[in-house]
Amino acid sequence: MRVSVGRRLGVSVTAVAVLAAVAGCQGGDGADKGGKKAAADAPAAAEPQWSSALQVIQAAYEKTAAAKSARVRLTMTMPESPAGGAGAAGVAGLGAGGTMEMSGVVGWDPGTMDITMTGDGLLGGGEGSSAGSRLVMVDDVMYMDMGDEAPADLGGKRWLKLDFKALGEKTGDAALRKQLTGSLESMNQDPAKQLAMLLDSPHLKHVGPEKVGGVQTQHYKGTLTVDEMVAANKSLAVLSEKERADLVASMKESGLTAYDTDVWVDADGYPAKMDIGMVTPEGRIEVTATYSDYGAKAAVQAPPAGETFDFMEMMEKLSEAMEDGADADSSAA
């Protein structure tokens, strides 16, 4: 495999890891439960405004969940970490920071996605980092377009197949399987789940009217502490009480202090724009997404089988080759 294709593979996998790390902070789908919890925690003095904002976000959640698809344009900005180490999301190889952009169509229930990603320093910099990479998700499987040079290096195939569910089953670890499939579901940036998390904020408020892309909207904002964020994250249910406590302690130790969400709801009751922010010692992680065409059919199709190569099979063959090489070295010795 030539260097450029190898770099592209690393870039694609790293980008997915970052997207999952940020999206993994989203809440579950229990909007009613979140609303009741937030109601109990809401400051009494802010009750009238809070209650009105809650009703709007609750209605937006229900409409968005029913739409099941939308067109999205997303920008994620990461701060540079010291000495080029792991980035603010805690993912190795992202120390350069930078910006990643993605656009396309996403669907939820079931989860589907067909997007194109571009980026600069966030994706590792260097050759090919801003050329764009297409990602397709269908039937719980992710496919990554490895670019025009891939067929020459990979037996005429250009699509990498990454089956998280099969990978989890291969390990035989039920908790890991749930975490892998949960991360996959989070990657499609389901706006309904993000609204559900906003409903868990006891500090939800109406900011005021604003225009987004020339469209009149109403701006709402909510903030969660690290403890509230972990409690709202349904995908962490697989962890034991001690593991959850350790996670919270680790996040606090890393300097992550708050997670906030802004949403702009249009006249039809759908979120036209969402901003997600996390404060870290290196700086602020920002994710901005604009949505349109809610309910439009997401006609996402998997690439032809003849043009795909399975990441798990590739790793198994690599492992076998390394074992054979080790055996040969032992025999020679």
Provide an overview of this structure.
The protein is an alpha+beta fold. It has a single domain, classed as outer membrane lipoprotein receptor (LolB), chain A (Clam). Helices cover 39% and strands 28% of the residues. It contains ten helices and twelve strands. Strands 7-8-9-10-11-1-2-3-4-5-6-12 form a twelve-stranded mixed beta sheet. Helix 1 crosses helix 6 and helix 2 packs antiparallel against helix 3. The longest helix is centred in the last third of the chain and has 22 residues. It starts with a helix and ends with a helix. About 15% of the residues have low confidence. Keywords: Signal. This is Lipoprotein. It comes from Streptomyces fradiae ATCC 10745 = DSM 40063.
List strands and helices in order, with pairings.
Blueprint: H1 3-23, H2 31-41, H3 47-67, E1 69-78, E2 98-107, E3 112-119, E4 133-138, E5 141-145, H4 150-153, E6 159-162, H5 164-171, H6 174-187, H7 191-198, E7 205-212, E8 215-224, H8 226-232, H9 241-253, E9 258-266, E10 271-280, E11 283-292, E12 308-310, H10 311-332
Parallel strand pairs: 6-12
Antiparallel strand pairs: 1-2, 1-11, 2-3, 3-4, 4-5, 5-6, 7-8, 8-9, 9-10, 10-11
Helix pairs in contact: 1-6, 2-3, 2-7, 3-7, 5-6
